[in-house]
Amino acid sequence: MPAQVISGKEVASEIRGELKKKVEELKSKGIHPGLGVILVGEDPASVSYVTSKAKGCEELGIYEETIRLSADVSEEEVLNLIEKMNNDSKFSGILVQLPLPDHIDEEKVVNAITPEKDVDGFHPVNQGLLLRGEKCPLPCTAHGAQQMLMRSGNDPAGKHVVICGRSNIVGKPLAAMLMQKKEAANATVTVVHTGTKDPAHFTKQADILVAAMGKPQAITADMVKEGAVVIDVGVNRIEDPSKKKGFRLVGDVDYDAISEKASYITPVPGGVGPMTVTMLLYNTVESAELIANK
Length: 294
Hints:
By secondary structure, the chain is of the alpha/beta class. It has helices at about 10-30, 45-60, 75-85, 105-110, 125-130, 140-150, 170-180, 200-205, 255-260, 275-290; strands at about 5, 35-40, 65-70, 95, 160-165, 190, 210, 230, 235-240, 245-250, 265. The strands form three sheets. It has a six-stranded parallel β-sheet. It has a three-stranded parallel β-sheet with strand order 3-2-4, sandwiched between helices. Strands 9-10 form a two-stranded antiparallel sheet. α2 (about 45-60) links the parallel β2 (about 35-40) and β3 (about 65-70). The longest helix is centred in the N-terminal third of the chain and has 21 residues, at about 10-30.
């Protein structure tokens, strides 16, 4: 029987509905969530992503302000702007859209954001808190994948989760999240990567398989056990002359073949992708509440 599809659009819509009520509750108490976004340059993908965040904020009633800077802006100017936003109470969350131009040190910029306003969850303080299992803003894509598991009835507790990929954005934080002794976690986690000699040996053992390598259709049907839950984080362009744009989007798994073996699977597009912006909005609301209650 074909796998059940876990729709990121549907899960994101459900969470946004909950967030909208939460924002209304907070506002009634005088707490106003706000997101400050810094966009450097005019990279089309970054502009599109920032626009979707602004629309999400408007939908939920979150204050949003995007500050657009030219691509030749100095690193010092960006850092000074972050410092102002750190001290501005109308922003409960701050996001600097990555990537940045080569002359700006991304690590220095991320580290300049006050940890409690770091809605991307990339600050080293928050990464440390995550590993310890303490309260902090969670990296959005990893948190989105966790929410999709829970809301589709696939609690990772007691399951063997195999994560393909060890990036700081998805693989590492998701592994840290799912191994915690807490709700929506408590899994046995294996991470495979480019240094793993026989990845299929591990992927075939997975109750839950997460593909986050950034390689189109790298996970094939023979690497997945019957009945596994497959979460595909990858978004890749491959040439397709039949499409008007000359390409189509695919994930890191061979969707058509694996959907015949898996019990649940996420599509690309429309899977984990819509969750990333939603979890950023979630972090913005959570940060507002935490800051207000300090």
